[in-house]
Design brief:
Radius of gyration: 15 Å
Order of helices and strands: HHHHHH
Mean pLDDT: 77
Structural class: mainly alpha
Helix content: 55-70%
Oligomer: single chain
C-alpha cells in the first residue's frame, strides 16, 4: 500500500471529523444499530459527535493530542474501551458520501468512483491501525 495515500486518507478522515463539530454539529450521521431490547442500554452521553463517542473520547483536543503523540485510532479505542468497528464504519460512510458528492458534481468519473469505493474500507482500516509520529 502506498504510504503517501495512507497518510493522506488518515489526515483527511481526522480533519473531516473535526470539521463537523466546528459548525456545531457532527459531520457524520449516525449509523442505525440493531436493538436487542425495547430498552436502550446505551448510556454514553450524547455529545453530538459519533466519532468521539465511538472512540470514547471526552473532547477533540484530547483526541488530537493522542494522535499527535503517535497513537493510532486502534490504540486510542482500545485504551478507552471504544468501538473500533463503529469508528471504521463511521469514517467509511462519510468518505462514501463524499465520493457520491464528487460523482454528482462531476469532479470524478463513474470508473474513478467505483475504484475508490472498492478501496475505502481497506484504506480506512489500514489507517486506523497505523500510528503516525507527528511529534
Amino acid at each position: 500500500m502506498n504510504m503517501k495515500r495512507v497518510i493522506t486518507v488518515g489526515t483527511m478522515m481526522v480533519s473531516m471529523s473535526f470539521a463537523g463539530t466546528a459548525w456545531g454539529q457532527s459531520a457524520i450521521s449516525p449509523i442505525p444499530t440493531a436493538k436487542w431490547s425495547i430498552v436502550d442500554l446505551d448510556t454514553r452521553e450524547d455529545s453530538g459527535d459519533e466519532l468521539l463517542n465511538a472512540l470514547n473520547q471526552p473532547s477533540e483536543e484530547k483526541l488530537y493530542q493522542e494522535l499527535y503523540n503517535g497513537k493510532s485510532l486502534r490504540m486510542i479505542t482500545e485504551a478507552n474501551n471504544g468501538d473500533l468497528t463503529e469508528v471504521i464504519a463511521l469514517q467509511v460512510k462519510q468518505l462514501r458520501e463524499q465520493l457520491d458528492e464528487r460523482l454528482a458534481s462531476g469532479t470524478i468519473s463513474s470508473d474513478q468512483h467505483t475504484a475508490q469505493q472498492a478501496e475505502l474500507e481497506e484504506l480506512v482500516t489500514q489507517s486506523a491501525n497505523t500510528a503516525y509520529n507527528l511529534a
